[in-house]
Amino acid sequence: MDLGLKGKWAIVSGASKGLGYACAHALAQEGVNLVLTSRTAATLAESSARIKADTGVQVIAIPADIKTEQGRKLVLAAAPQVDILVNNAGGPPPGDFRDFSRDDWIAALEGNMLSPIEMIKATVDGMIERKFGRIVNITSAAVKAPVDNLCLSNGARSGLTGFTGGVARQIAGHNVTLNNLLPGKFETDRLRGNNAQRATAENLPYEELVSRQIKTIPAGRFGIPAEFGHACAFLCSAYAGYITGQNLLIDGGAYAGTL
Predict the structure, then answer these.
(1) Residues 148, 126: Cα–Cα separation, whole Å
(2) What's the number of CA atoms in the CB half-sphere (13 Å) around residue 256?
(3) Residue 198 has pLDDT above 90, yes or no
(4) Over the stretch 100-150, which tens digit does the pLDDT of each residue have?
């Protein structure tokens, strides 16, 4: 299926690995040119070269910290135009809320709420002018079902969710959509790191913890990043213009609620 995206330009942050890379690769497969960013220059260069070799699209790699004003300026300056924006940043560390300082909370808000908002502010007017735009925030399943040891992420990402709901309706009439993708448990470095921390805290073997988690997922497995990436590509497609202001949960059926 041709998603109608050939020749478009996308910015994807946190794109060197994991779900960000999966989204970038899926968009590139649809002919989307990319500006990719992450903080780790070497990993980003490898990932960018791989995508370019696989798909033949233009790929511009900008090592930067998207959480900073300077980092955002570097990324935005590299993009000829921005038709698609995929906001993605690694979540703040897990832990007990009693152990986190005010600075920890400010850092979480900067990374997982305020930075995506600034990127939306910087790109949405151009999308409106061109009568096409797709904005996707990668948040977390914890927005719908908070995770006890991810309190920083629960709070910051929920704030972004509230912002998204209001703004999506202001821009919908211009063929500009704004949605959130909520990943459950996917095979990524972040999942492995969080599970290692939890296994230590609970004094469990890592393998036993993973086995317990998989038993709670009706699909019987963790997600594959490519599955997530192609869902993102569809939300960015020419055929998804009537989907906006939504929170799409991709978790293998783990969330048991109806809403």
Answers:
(1) 39
(2) 3
(3) no
(4) 999 999 999 999 999 999 999 999 999 999 999 999 999 999 889 888 888
Residue 7 main-chain phi, psi, to 5 deg: 85, -10
**Could you tell me which of 27, 30, 29, 77 has the C-alpha nearest to residue 53?**
29
Q: Which of 204, 187, 199 is nearest to 149 (CA)?
A: 199
Rounded to 5 degrees, φ, ψ at 129 are -65, -40
User: Is 21 in contact with 86 (CB distance < 8 Å)?
Assistant: no
Residue whose structure tokens are 């009693």: 98
CB distance 36 to 61 below 8 Å: yes
Q: Which of 197, 150, 178 is closest to 247 using CA atoms?
A: 178
Q: Which residues contact 61 (CB under 8 A, 6 or more apart)?
A: 36, 37, 44, 45, 47, 48
Buried b (16+ CB within 10 A) or exposed e, 218-248: eeeebbebbebbbbbbebbbeebeebbbbbb
Q: Which residue, 43, 20, 171, 234, is CA-closest to 34?
A: 20
Question: Which two structure tokens, joined as six digits, stand for 102?
Answer: 């005010």
Tokens of 26: 């899926």
pTM: 0.94
Q: Rounded distance, CA 110 to CA 193, Å?
A: 22
